[in-house]
Amino acid sequence: MSAQPIHPHQPPSAPPPAAAAQLRTRIAGHAAADRWLPAFDRDWAAALEESRATYDLTALHEVVREWQGRLDTAPAVAALVASGFEDTDSVPLEDVIGFRR
Fold first, then answer.
1. How far apart are CA 97 and CA 101, in angstroms?
2. Which of 26, 42, 56, 79 is paired with 70 by a 20 to 30 Å CA distance?
3. Which pLDDT score is estimated for 98?
4. What pLDDT was estimated at residue 92?
């Protein structure tokens, strides 16, 4: 008997060609644009270099999906912070994922 799933895993669909430009415009209009825009540009440049080396667009698609998620969840995060949520017992994110360069 095979342990294969009945329905094979389907990767997420590719974002439309203009998704990165539209996303950059959304980031530029966000309150945290002064921090987020350079970070997006850095992530996009690294993914672009990887794509040029591998001839694979996956890294670019992942950057778009990641930043869309950040922008989509930003209002909920802002509401949580504004509610006075106490996070003094939390672990610094750098301890979990390491420092980004």
1. 12
2. 56
3. 72
4. 74
